[in-house]
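User: Need the bound-state model for xanthosine-5'-monophosphate:
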Amino acid sequence: MKAPIVSLSYDDVLLVPRFSQIRSRKEPILETRFTKHIALNIPIISANMDTVTESKMAIALARLGGIGIVHRFLSIDREVEEVSRVKRAEAYVIDDPYTVFPDTLLKDAKQRMYTLGAALLVIDEDKKLIGILTNRDVEFVDSTTLRVSDVMTKELITASPKISLDGAKGIFMKQKIEKLPLVDAKGVLRGLITKKDILARIRYPEAAKDKKGRLLVGAAVGVMGDYLERTKALVEAGVDVIVIDIAHGHSIMMKEAMVRIKKIVGECTDVVAGNVATKDGVRDLVKWGADAVKVGIGPGAACTTRIMTGVGVPQFSAVLECGIEAKKFHVPIIADGGVKNSGDFTKALAAGAETVMIGSMFAGTDESPGQEIVKNGARYKLYRGMASIGANVAKTTISGSQKGANYERITPEGVEAVVPYKGKIDATISLLLGGLRSGMSYLGAKTIKEMPKNAEFIQITQAGLRESNSHDIDVK
Ligand code: XMP
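Assistant: Bound-state model below.
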């Protein structure tokens, strides 16, 4: 046993201001590395928790330049569906648009359209395009006998698969259409360009996208049960990164799972692994194949790991130590949990993290999954730790266990809570980025990479922390 050393949290430290050549808060560049091969335009990741990230959150965050990690407490089909929704939300060209055959019953096609939230292109057996079925064709038709061919729009404006983006824009403007199917010389359907996607490109210039112009998305898997089947299905759905997420990432279970998962994903999909909080943890995860390492044992707002087990490392020190180790291997780390405000966010990046994962600050937004609760006229949403009793019970339902949850056997390492409703996520992101830009300007750091180089941290006292917050005034 070693003698204890002092380990610090974000609240224990401050960054010292230094000479800065930055003239405007617009100057700092927020691009960063998420994994060895994936870059983001802002250093923000939404946590793979069932009250934080499903497709709605992932779409919103990727449009703003970050990435969302879909949680794994869903059936494989549902997790795949969430990923597919993100990958289909935007694209330069949709390679495999949703299709339907002309003899399909209209009521079935309608049901599919509502589930997918998309129009269907009508093709024959040779994949030749013969029509399109949009909302306009079906909204007033209520029939159990009609077929798709009875109501579909047959007069189509199409283009060659080789059409340029500007060419497509011209057609949208001239023809006042919403969808432009791409067909080859034989009339075979080869893809689809939508007006919505073109407009999104203009509206979200910072969006984090893959080579095909689709939004980036990650998805979490565990290390037991169906995790290999799940990984395979997620990769087939086009997920950009697999996050192997377990409470204690520095473990034999992780090592064995990583080897198997790496075999499935090959070179094409990066793997993030975690969580760890030590340099040994980082080194081993990198050795086993991690393309980024998630750091954080017990700092999260809904975490009780440290209280229940006596184990953990205060997050600032964990990020600092892990960041130094990760640099030796050129692998980025993700500071996961414990960020309560834009100051903590800035400190995490200055301490050596290249991105930050956020849970509670994003819970309660329009984009987080879960129902709103109204209490005494105020609006709230649920936020819960994934090791809370409620989350454990939900996991049993998903895994299809016949026995149900055994409450006495659950040792929770997380809690369930409500957080105030916060409206759209854009406001929270804007606060985080505004604080970060300002912090970078105090440090004279033009890039995220420069932050640790320019960072000098000082430890503060309780009196210092009290002084840091608003004090001695009546804040409403
Ligand atoms: P914040 O502070 O952003 O933290 O809400 C989000 C991170 O918390 C972790 N997490 C847990 N940790 N017990 C834990 O000890 C839990 O039940 C739990 N649920 C989530 C996770 O790393 C997440 O990203």
